[in-house]
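Pinned message: reference record for Glycine/D-amino acid oxidase, deaminating
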Amino acid sequence: AKSGIRNVAVLEKDYLSSGSTGRCGGGIRQQWSERMNVRLAMRSVDHFKRFESEVGFDIEYFQGGYLLLAYTEEEVSLFEKNTKMQQEEGLDVVLLSREETAKIFPFINLTNVKATAYCPSDGHANPHLTTFAYARAAQRMGVEILTHTSAERILTESGRIIGVQTNKGQIGAEVIVNAAGGYSHEVGRMAGIDLPTESYKHQISG
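Predicted structure (tokens):
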């Protein structure tokens, strides 16, 4: 919609932020092991810094930093490799010894910790506020958000996409964006595409 495309609709099978987005930790970090992920994350952080002024909503974005802990020599070697690459990409990340970490974070139990990787520009945002902020901004630009509307089948004709069959009827479309996250594999299969994605359960404590 921002680029001028009209007649955009977003399908949500339940309510906004009802799935994994609403249950995530809301972390926004740049410490990744692949260069492309680091670059994408750094661009995301630049966007989140401007989010309130550009999108118009307070999403409780806070850059409190991310501290990753290494408990084995193998993990230390991996941290050394990753931080070197991340620094080459311009990320403000440092590798700290246990003693250096204790001076900066005296409240953390560092028993058996051999080293840490710290990036002060990593942070956190409220996932619910962020989701609704994007939704409201999209609606202002004419996007129609259809909640409680699930995609059941992707309609094709002569090898081209012509629309989506939903639980509430058909929607014509020449272009479909698969933004189903952990369910992207299932949506891909509707179009005969086998996406190599899998979902894994994680636990978050806070």
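Pinned by admin. Summary line: The chain has two domains: 9-22+128-190, 27-125.
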